[in-house]
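User: Can you predict the 3D structure for this chain?
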Amino acid sequence: MIDRKKYVDIFTFPVKDYYEQAGFDFSKEDFEVPAMEFIKLYHESLPLANLHPCANDVLKYFKSLGLNQFVLSAMEHTSLLKSLKDNGIYNYFEHINGIDNHYAHSKLDIGKDLLQKIGLAPEEILMIGDTLHDKDVAEGLGINFVLVAKGHQSKERLLAETPLVFDNLLDIKDYF
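Assistant: Here is the predicted structure, written as structure tokens:
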């Protein structure tokens, strides 16, 4: 069993690398087997997941400033739409972009598509993420970013790569 501390210390993208760090040996078992088992359990448990505390407040704040908000996620697109609707935050976003499969390989290509759709200059965009993969995607897209240390990777791991790390979403309002 992997506890929360171990999870945030080893979670990474691509997700297959995380599974290997968690002890899976894909020379003995095909990656698709645990990946599909995870997706099944993930979808069953998703209604139990809560938004970050203050997520609604931060979304309302950015909306009050007249800022356009977008979603770029490693979650499968249809599941992402359902989750945003179920959590009552779908209407905050101008564009919502998830991946077209359950394997969470990379967000860079869908990020490039999103940039073409929205027509903003890279320096006008701030990406808020919670993983080093988000940092890498933002850098690959040439956009600014900040990370929140209440997600998939530990604050220590994030700070080892960038000083742009906040303890929670509410702190971003002060930065902004």
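The chain has a mean pLDDT of 90. The first helix runs from residue 4 to 10.
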